[in-house]
Amino acid sequence: MDVQIAVYHSLRWLLRPFLLRGVAIATHGINHIPQRGAAIIVCNHRSDTDGLLITFALPRYIAWMVADYMTNIPVTSQVLSLTGMVPVKTEGYPTPSSIKQALHRLRQGKLLGIFPEGEDYIFANDFDAPLAQLQSGFAHLAYVAQVPVIPTMIVPTAEKLEPITIPPVIRPHLEKHYDLTHVNSIVRYRAADIRIGKAISLNPVARLDKHEQVGWLQMQTRQAMLNLQN
Cα–Cα distance between 172 and 12 in angstroms, integer? Predict the structure, then answer.
């Protein structure tokens, strides 16, 4: 077995009872996740625990695109590397290295997980805020790798704001990130539905140029996510 996948599933099994204690998860549409082959999971982003919820709910390995500042944190950096996660800049355009790593995971036949609303959205703590506009990076990756996109929504059924504190030993590694050093609270789920939609392929618009295909996929994915939410 792939070493990264083996480490991922070992940690998933070991940590699930502790990291999701007291959180009830109901998963719908899991049959839309292919048993094998590459695809991009596109999910909304309301909390810093969103990646964990999807990771623990789905049986397949997911290579998540994670904020690059996470690689500055001791231990976390090693875990991300051992499990094959893909660091990506949270501001500006992704680096060629991030794009190369993401495409490599897809060409290995793996699932790639992306939160295209961007991380700033989770710090707003606006429970009534609509789904944000999706950044187009996932659609460009899907076009280049020629893989489908799987729209996914985390729909909370019980949640609350909790204070967030950054331990002193970690704070120096995050000083350059304004939101993380100034945010006072963040969403914590008590119960949530994970709703997975049907895969969206570029086949219907294969005759269009790249720009049109990317725009179409971006629009179709957001609409599918809105449908799942409602």
Answer: 28
Centre a 10 Å sphere on the Cβ of residue 108 and count the other Cβ atoms it contains: 14
Which residue has 């969103």 as its token pair?
A: 50
For the chain, what is the radius of gyration of the CA atoms?
17
- Check: CB of residue 142 under 8 Å from CB of residue 180: no
pLDDT digits (tens, 9 = 90+) for 29-52: 999 999 999 999 999 988 888 999
196 phi and psi, to 5 degrees? -110, 125
DSSP state of 170: T
For residue 52, the one-letter residue type is L
Residue 187: DSSP 8-state: E
Measured between alpha carbons, how far is residue 26 from residues 106, 133, 190, 191, 196 in Å? 27, 26, 12, 8, 11
pTM of the prediction?
A: 0.91
